[in-house]
Amino acid sequence: MTNQQNVVVVDVKPHGGVKPPLSSPVAKSFSPQDLKLLLIKKRFETENAWVLDSMRASSPTRISNPTTTSLPETDVKSSWIVHHPSALNMFEQIVTASKGKQIAMFLDYDGTLSPIVEDPDRAFMPREMRAAVRDVARFFPTAILTGRCRDKVYSFVKLSGLYYAGSHGMDIKGPSKSCKDNNNGKQGVLFQPASEFLPMIDEVYKALVEKTKSIPGAKVENNKFCVSVHYRCVDEKSWATIAEQVRSVLNHYPKLKLTQGRKVLEIRPTIKWDKGRALEFLLEALGYNNPNDVLPIYIGDDRTDEDAFKVLRDRGLGFGILVSKIPKETNASYSLQEPSEVKEFLRRLVEWKKLSLQTPIIG
Ligand SMILES: O=P(O)(O)OC[C@H]1O[C@H](O[C@H]2O[C@H](CO)[C@@H](O)[C@H](O)[C@H]2O)[C@H](O)[C@@H](O)[C@@H]1O
């Protein structure tokens, strides 16, 4: 008996479908080692095709419901807006729901407080938006939840008195007394559930910089507890290469996983922690253990914000607001089209609060 086995090569399609045997009816001979390598190769190709499909579809997933795709685009849009009305149009209902409760604001950064731009290092927050966030934080406990490194987002927002949850909620810090305090090392840090991953993330960051350096437009960002590989400025013809390179690095790190955002591949620890868990943590840190005391409002534009929208929906708590111009699958209740509408919504909240503090309660 030899070490060879008769194996028919089967081509596995990206979504798990199986094509007819490649060389049927002639079977090829493979050693167990060859077979193992072949299966690894197939799995790699399958995962890669999946990542690439997803990159093309961009984020968050556009509506692909068979009941809506047959409709003209304008009908899809109006059907979506019926189910996710504008938070500006629903403003009265939102503030009415807060009666007897404290509103707590949770804000994503990129695409919510600052418009999406090509260079992630230049995603500055407009002055008027900063003023709106500062005013909101005067009246309502406010937190920024972002995929970015916490220090980086603080350098954009520059507001003390807020909670900051960086690295998709894996780096949470409470308000500091002044702007200067904020970068004082670990002082004020509330929670870092992935600290053991720091050396690994650093290693992966360096490996990814090296791997992707030959792809024009690719940019790797070290977000402390996670890494972002940007392909917004990469020619679509090279997207498959970039997906392949990221996967080839990740294959050496089974404790890390790949998720996706807006034209970005995100590498993060496989721990059960995301913006949804961070939101729950923050509610508790703020002392809102009783759901009757608080009305959380979470505003975000990306896939990772869906974890937070889902927590709110599942717990029947507050409202998720998706920032999007186009219909997308979402767990949010309401929508806003773009950051300028977010600013308008925040301003209206402040005006409403000021007015309600002036108005004597009758009865
Ligand atoms: O959770 P977020 O605050 O939304 O952070 C998610 C990622 O945002 C940044 O990337 C995105 O914005 C860039 C600047 O507008 C844009 O160039 C990029 O294509 C977007 O994906 C940030 O650079 C990433 O690290 C965050 O993970």
Helix and strand topology:
Layout lengths: L4 E3 L20 E3 L1 H26 L8 H4 L3 H11 L7 H7 L4 E6 L19 H13 L2 E4 L4 H8 L5 E4 L4 E3 L15 E3 L6 H15 L6 E4 L4 E4 L8 H12 L5 E6 L2 E6 L5 H11 L8 E7 L4 H11 L3 E5 L10 E3 L2 H20 L5
Parallel strand pairs: 3-4, 3-12, 4-5, 12-13, 13-14
Antiparallel strand pairs: 1-2, 5-6, 6-7, 8-9, 9-11, 10-11
The structure holds the ligand O=P(O)(O)OC[C@H]1O[C@H](O[C@H]2O[C@H](CO)[C@@H](O)[C@H](O)[C@H]2O)[C@H](O)[C@@H](O)[C@@H]1O.
- Give the count of helical stretches: 11
Q: Helicity range of the residues?
A: 25-40%
Order of helices and strands: EEHHHHEHEHEEEHEEHEEHEHEEH
Shape type: globular
* Averaged pLDDT: 87
> From the alpha-carbon coordinates, what is the Rg to the nearest angstrom?
24 Å
**Oligomeric description of these chains:** single chain
* First-residue to last-residue Cα separation: 94 Å
Strand proportion, as a percent range, falls in 15-25%
- Please give the largest β-sheet: 8 strands, mixed
Keywords, separated by commas or semicolons:
363 residues; 8-stranded mixed sheet; alpha/beta; 4-stranded antiparallel sheet; stress response; 11 helices; single chain; binds the ligand O=P(O)(O)OC[C@H]1O[C@H](O[C@H]2O[C@H](CO)[C@@H](O)[C@H](O)[C@H]2O)[C@H](O)[C@@H](O)[C@@H]1O; EC 3.1.3.12; globular
Can you give a write-up of this model?
Its cofactor is a divalent metal cation. Removes the phosphate from trehalose 6-phosphate to produce free trehalose. Trehalose accumulation in plant may improve abiotic stress tolerance. This protein has helices at 32-57, 66-69, 73-83, 91-97, 127-139, 150-157, 198-212, 239-250, 275-285, 305-315, 339-358; strands at residues 5-7, 28-30, 102-107, 142-145, 163-166, 171-173, 189-191, 219-222, 227-230, 256-261, 264-269, 294-300, 319-323, 334-336. The chain is an alpha/beta fold. An eight-stranded mixed beta sheet has the order 7-6-5-4-3-12-13-14, with helices on both faces. Strands 8-9-11-10 form a four-stranded antiparallel beta sheet, with helices on one face. The longest helix has 26 residues, at 32-57. The chain is globular and about 85 Å long. Mean pLDDT is 87; it is low at 1-27 and 179-185. The structure holds the ligand O=P(O)(O)OC[C@H]1O[C@H](O[C@H]2O[C@H](CO)[C@@H](O)[C@H](O)[C@H]2O)[C@H](O)[C@@H](O)[C@@H]1O. The ligand O=P(O)(O)OC[C@H]1O[C@H](O[C@H]2O[C@H](CO)[C@@H](O)[C@H](O)[C@H]2O)[C@H](O)[C@@H](O)[C@@H]1O is lined by residues 108-111, 116-118, 120, 123, 146-148, 221, 223, 228, 230, 232, 261-264, 266, 302, 304.
